[in-house]
């Protein structure tokens, strides 16, 4: 059912917790493609300094890829610059993803910005189902 799972990640705790859900779903559904995505944000718009660092993001993706490989799952990595919600939805369309799994909050969510959060935008723009992990 979920042959291709897109897992956008950042350095948040919620993203780390969502990784466990992706691993479980991939094993249950026999997913043959797991795509790990991280977005390099413009330094002026970045919610976190590390999300504007291509080197930090490359390290984050490599660590996540190793986590999946340790569980016997092959995961490919994609790193793209831009606005996270739009890049996530574009990549979901390109790969094409059967499911997007992401944490409920990322590094950029604030209470006053909940309606404009990356998660909320992805839910509204995604070309496939979105599973939000609390």
Automatic annotation (TrEMBL):
Residues 1-134 form the UspA domain. It comes from the Bacteria. Gene3D superfamilies: HUPs (3.40.50.620). It holds the Pfam family Usp. InterPro entries: Rossmann-like_a/b/a_fold, Universal_stress_UspA, UspA. Belongs to the universal stress protein A family. This is Universal stress protein.
